[in-house]
């Protein structure tokens, strides 16, 4: 396998240095004034792909800034890095692996050789097995221990083996077929198991144990709990195989757990967990919406990959979004980035993007192991837009931090009710406009005077009503939320994340940080049973362990 492009230290790039000068020159830049001066600003700073529109005109940029950002992408080798990733070069340098989630969504022809295997053939075979499974479950041919068809599927998995499937199952609810209910069992907190299992009829439930490693504590504990529960509900031991499917790259461990080999769908080490919804980890999506819709989602993602690979940098949606992220994180000191979908079906998008982006970009050293002396990824957060307006948008509008935001909305609702979509759209636009325009002291003063307030009260209240404005946002408009555009949207963010990692010179595909908590958890667990060993640990952990033991005994 070929090693990828050579990563750079962005601080050494001429464009980075020019951007620092540009940032100083942009001091005092006013977005409202820029809109007034340039009636073409929206046209100039927006682009579309697959019917999706990205309006990035409400950003702290002008033409020279954008030119410099594009030069930064070119100097950091973004086009070559995209090609390297797509080709299957080793882009995950610490684990010496390619990151080929793009291969999972390529059309069903052609070849891609990796270590002597054509992985596209393997992907096609898995899709065929998924299609068979979906057909068996939908037709009632797949039966539980009591000879009844399946009504409920329970995906047992966490992180990437949960968040992507959850997002897509929720987002594509209007496309549901097969009449199944889908549950996601993720947490080791037994309350979650209790709440889900009490809704189920054991004889009609199919558990999908989704774990790339088949070594994740939460998933294994929940799978064991599911097995115990099935047995307690009267499932004979030899019939357990009718209730378990596994998706894993560790077939041996899944077999050792007791899952029948023919019920195990493979995964590959060249797919990262947070990029895995396109693999058989997406089985819940296929079961809930049908294989055709699953494939339409793959096609949308593939089209976005081709766009990322082939569109000139200036017309490239993920490149533009990545560069704006860098502009704010590295030149404006932004510490967080809000994702605000104005679409109930996209309510889990921020959660999925949190893992996608923060596990990928939360790095402190470059590929060469040298510490970063610049910021990498910001905190990603967000929720349904309209709800946020009545909660945290106050901070976005008047807080002391600048939080760049992505507003995401569909032009058409799939469930129109009166003029709700129009109001939803108006709300979305009003928020990005308020962030951009703000309200000056003079405007606030005039408003209060016009309301008949006396001068003393006007002077007292007006400063509290000032909204600084000039706060950046993107608006992404989807024609409608369907499988194709959902695929494109998720792949847009995947490509954005990778492009940023290329510019920062970091590995977007490993996650060593999360290992420490897992290791320490193993050491702390025995302390909750006995005092032995507490002397060797810090007083906080020892004290909290003592409290747990006491609570259990009382
Ligand atoms: O703990 C983090 C993580 O390793 C994620 O990267 C991954 O998506 C998740 O755990 C689940 O891992 P697995 O699919 O191997 O159970």
TrEMBL record:
**What would be an example GO MF term here?**
monosaccharide binding
Quote the gene name from the UniProt entry. pgi
Catalytic residues? 359 (proton donor), 390, 518
Give the keywords, sorted. Answer: Cytoplasm, Gluconeogenesis, Glycolysis, Isomerase
Tell me the InterPro entries matching this sequence: G6P_Isomerase, G6P_Isomerase_C, Phosphoglucose_isomerase_CS, SIS_dom_sf, SIS_PGI_1, SIS_PGI_2
Q: Which reaction does it catalyse?
A: alpha-D-glucose 6-phosphate = beta-D-fructose 6-phosphate
Q: Which GO terms describe its cellular component?
A: cytosol
- EC category: isomerase
Its main localization is: cytoplasm
* One Pfam match: PGI
Keyword Cytoplasm tagged? yes
Indicate where this protein resides in the cell.
Cytoplasm
Q: Which GO terms describe its biological process?
A: gluconeogenesis; glucose 6-phosphate metabolic process; glycolytic process
Q: In which pathway does it act?
A: Carbohydrate degradation; glycolysis; D-glyceraldehyde 3-phosphate and glycerone phosphate from D-glucose: step 2/4; Carbohydrate biosynthesis; gluconeogenesis
What does UniProt give as the signal peptide span? Answer: none
NCBIfam families under this entry? Answer: PRK00179.1
Family, as annotated? Belongs to the GPI family.
Q: What is this protein called?
A: Glucose-6-phosphate isomerase
Listed EC numbers? 5.3.1.9
Q: What does this protein do?
A: Catalyzes the reversible isomerization of glucose-6-phosphate to fructose-6-phosphate.
């Amino acid at each position: 396998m070929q090693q990828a492009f050579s990563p750079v230290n962005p601080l050494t790039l001429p464009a980075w240095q020019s951007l620092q000068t540009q940032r100083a020159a942009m001091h005092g830049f006013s977005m409202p004034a820029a809109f007034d001066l340039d009636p073409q600003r929206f046209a100039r700073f927006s682009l579309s792909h697959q019917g999706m529109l990205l309006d990035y005109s409400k950003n702290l940029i002008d033409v020279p800034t954008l030119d410099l950002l594009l030069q930064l992408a070119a100097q950091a080798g973004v086009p070559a890095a995209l090609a390297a990733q797509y080709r299957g070069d080793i882009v995950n340098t610490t684990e010496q692996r390619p990151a080929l989630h793009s291969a999972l969504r390529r059309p069903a022809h052609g070849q891609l050789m990796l270590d002597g295997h054509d992985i596209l053939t393997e992907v096609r075979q898995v899709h065929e097995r998924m299609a068979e499974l979906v057909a068996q479950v939908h037709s009632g041919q797949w039966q539980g221990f009591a000879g009844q068809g399946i009504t409920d599927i329970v995906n047992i998995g966490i992180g990437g083996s949960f968040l992507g499937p959850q997002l897509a199952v929720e987002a594509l609810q209007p496309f549901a077929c097969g009449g199944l209910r889908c549950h996601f069992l993720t947490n080791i907190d037994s309350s979650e198991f209790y709440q889900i299992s009490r809704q189920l009829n054991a004889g009609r439930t199919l558990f999908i144990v989704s774990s790339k490693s088949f070594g994740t504590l939460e998933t294994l504990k929940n799978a064991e709990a599911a097995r115990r529960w099935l047995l307690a509900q009267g499932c004979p031991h030899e019939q357990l195989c009718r209730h378990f499917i596994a998706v894993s790259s560790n077939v041996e461990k899944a077999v050792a757990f007791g899952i029948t080999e023919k019920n195990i769908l493979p995964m590959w080490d060249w797919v990262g967990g947070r990029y895995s919804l396109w693999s058989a980890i997406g089985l819940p999506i296929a079961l809930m919406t049908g294989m055709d819709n699953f494939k339409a989602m793959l096609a949308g993602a593939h089209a976005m990959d081709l766009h990322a690979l082939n569109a000139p940098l200036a017309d490239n949606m993920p490149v533009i979004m990545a560069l704006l992220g860098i502009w704010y994180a590295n030149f404006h000191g932004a510490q967080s980035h809000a994702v605000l979908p104005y679409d109930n079906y996209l309510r889990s998008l921020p959660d999925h993007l949190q893992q996608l982006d923060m596990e990928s970009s939360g790095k402190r050293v470059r590929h060469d192991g040298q510490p970063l002396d610049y910021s990498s990824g910001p905190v990603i957060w967000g929720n349904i837009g309209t709800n946020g307006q009545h909660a945290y948008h106050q901070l976005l509008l008047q807080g002391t931090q600048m939080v760049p935001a992505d507003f995401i909305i569909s032009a058409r609702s799939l469930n129109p009710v009166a003029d709700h979509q129009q109001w939803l759209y108006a709300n979305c636009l009003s928020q990005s406009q308020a962030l951009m325009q703000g309200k000056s002291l003079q405007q606030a003063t005039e408003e209060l005077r016009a309301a008949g307030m006396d001068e003393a009260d006007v002077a007292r209240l007006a400063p509290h009503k000032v909204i600084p404005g000039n706060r950046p946002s993107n608006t992404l408009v989807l024609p409608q939320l369907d499988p194709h555009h959902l695929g494109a949207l998720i792949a847009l963010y995947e490509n954005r994340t990778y492009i940023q990692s290329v510019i920062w010179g970091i590995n977007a595909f490993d996650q060593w940080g999360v290992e420490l908590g897992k290791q320490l958890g193993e050491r702390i667990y025995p302390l909750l049973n006995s005092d032995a060993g507490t002397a060797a640990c810090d007083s906080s952990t020892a004290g909290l362990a003592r409290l747990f033991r006491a609570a259990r005994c009382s």
